[in-house]
Amino acid sequence: xxxxxxxxxxxxxxxxxxxxxxxxxxxxxxxxxxxxxxxxxxxxxxxxxxxxxxxxxxxxxxxxxxxxxxxxxxxxxxxxxxxxxxxxxxxxxxxxxxxxxxxxxxxxxxxxxxxxxxxxxxxxxxxxxxxxxxxxxxxxxxxxxxxxxxxxxxxxxxxxxxxxxxxxxxxxxxxxxxxxxxxxxxxxxxxxxxxxxxxxxxxxxxxxxxxxxxxxxxxxxxxxxxxxxxxxxxxxxxxxxxxxxxxxxxxxxxxxxxxxxxxxxxxxxxxxxxxxxxxxxxxxxxxxxxxxxxxxxxxxxxxxxxxxxxxxxxxxxxxxxxxxxxxxxxxxxxxxxxxxxxxxxxxxxxxxxxxxxxxxxxxxxxxxxxxxxxxxxxxxxxxxxxxxxxxxxxxxxxxxxxxxxxxxxxxxxxxxxxxxxxxxxxxxxxxxxxxxxx
Length: 438
Description:
Jelly Rolls, 3 domains, 6-stranded antiparallel β-sheet, 29 strands, 23% helix
């Protein structure tokens, strides 16, 4: 989306590299923004950004044999799109010349939460790009202040640009093991519509490294030939990597509060409140982050949210299931919300997208009651196929093949009541499925 309107070159449909667990969310979001023909590479396990870029580089190009690749994290905020396009144009010129390009954010403040890029001289009088002189780890405050004052350090954005052949050649020199593992994973991949499903065993053996560590930091910057350059970027950038960062980029009221959802604030200042499923009221607070979801509630000092990993570890120790699964779950056909559960029962609110259908399946341990709340349901139950509308219901006995489909133009909503001696999501035997699931 950030490249729409870019005048510098033809922009192909995006390649998205993501974890297999996010495939349905990614496809839904791409469809929502009008991307009709993406390619989505599914990683069975996370292996950091260098393997992810390599996978994208190994895909067949739509047009050019050696296209320029622009690598962008999907969760960054860029407010000034014209300034971003100008920087990308500069980066494309350098990439076409055979250089590896990274983009450095002009720092707005001493920041201890970002890594830094050390830059050298401009590569020419006409270019804004500067020689890449090195990378610095996240600094302490005193060091960060010296970086900003010195003018030779930029924030590391994690955005890169280079020709496909240049990346693969650099990877072969510095991390041949990554290239070999990715080629093997792609050779064993299965194409499922827009999805590229990698060979799990081959990709699991791939080293896990970032683009920075695998290649960029290995480049010799003291040689007479410059291999990598930095394009300064000043475009209202944020990686939105913490709740503090989200508060900083969110619209705020006259008291400095940013609120989303059903929120009431009284005598509260400089606080972020996110209410997902119920009313949240805050009284007499300052510099807090309050996040309410269907799963849990977080209350934290706004400047302490960078320490959340320790808190999540403690939550995992107390309740491992809470950090591994959610009440609301995306499926390729829609989503469900587990409203209530107890001994031998579970209640779900199920939404099926227009034109979508669940798999034809049966359960060994549970029966299901379906009540239509809104929309039209096409039900397969055993040998019968019939339709239900609002306020109508049906019963699916244990072991009976069944399917729920939405033939209508609006979302189908049902309440499902499960009963039985085991109600886990793995009690599903699929007989037919439109989405390639086992």
